[in-house]
Amino acid sequence: MDFGIAGRKALVCGASAGLGLACARALAVEGVELVIVARTEAPLRAAAEALAATASAPVHWVAADVTTDEGRARIFAAHPEFDIVVTNAGGPPPGDFRNWSRDTWLAALDANMLAPIAIIRQLVDGMMVRGFGRIVNITSSAVKSPVDGLGLSTGARSGLTGFVAGLARSTVAQGVTINNLLPGTFDTARLAGNFAAQAKRDGRDADEVRAARIAKHPARRLGRPEEFGAACAFLCSAHAGYINGQNLLLDGGSFGGVF
Fold first, then answer.
1. What does the alpha-carbon distance between residue 60 and residue 184 come to, in Å, rounded to a whole number?
2. At what angle do helices 115-130 and 69-78 cross, to 10 degrees?
3. Which end is more exposed in the chain, N or C (fewer Cβ atoms within 10 Å of the end residue's Cβ)?
4. pLDDT digit string (tens) for 72-131?
5. Which of 7, 59, 1, 61 is nearest to 31 (CA)?
6. H/E run at residue 183
7. Angle subtended by helix axes 151-171 and 102-109, to nearest 10
8. What is the widest separation between alpha-carbon atoms in the chain?
9. Comparing C-alpha atoms, which of 72, 147, 149 is closest to residue 116?
10. pLDDT score recorded for residue 245
């Protein structure tokens, strides 16, 4: 299927690795011009070079921290307009809410709620004027099914979810959709790090922790990043103009509810 977005320009955040990079790859296949962003220059440059080797459209990169005004300004100074935006930031560490200070909460809100909103604010009006826009926020399955200890991530991402639910209804008539992708357990370096941390806490081997998680999963496997990227690319496509204000859960059936 031709997704109808060749020649469009996309901003993909957190795109040096993991799910952000998977989304960038899927968009590159569709002929989308990319601007990929992450904080650390070396892996970001390597990701851009790998994407450019097979892409049919230009691939740009900007090393910037999107949680800061300065970082966002650097991106928009070089690339002021986009047709597609994928917001993405790593979640804050787990812990006991009794130990979280106000500054800890504010850092989580900056990364997982306020930064995406600031990016949307910068770009959404231009999208509406041009009559096309796709905004996809990578959040977490914990927004749908909270996990004890992930309160910082769940709280901040739930705030973003509530905000865009209202905004999406005011933009779709001008051709701009806003949706959220909620990943479950995908086979990324970040998840491997989580397994390693849990193994260290429990005095077990990381492979044992991974195997135990997979054994309890309905799909008996982890998600593949390319599956996530494909879902993102479809939401960004010309065919997804009637999908708006939704939270798409990609967890292989882990969520036990009906709705």
1. 29
2. 30
3. C
4. 999 999 999 999 999 999 888 888 999 999 999 999 999 999 999 999 999 999 999 999
5. 7
6. strand 176-183
7. 40
8. 56
9. 72
10. 98
Burial 127-139 (b: 16+ CB within 10 A, else e): bbeeebbbbbbbb
pTM over 0.85: yes
Contact 129, 123 (CB under 8 A): no
Say yes or no to pLDDT of 232 above 90.
yes
Q: Which structure tokens are listed for 54? A: 């097979």
Distance of CA 216 to the CA centre of its chain: 25
- Residue 88's SS3 state is coil
Query: Distance between terminal CA atoms of the chain?
Result: 29
**Angstrom distance (rounded) from CA 167 to CA 164:** 5
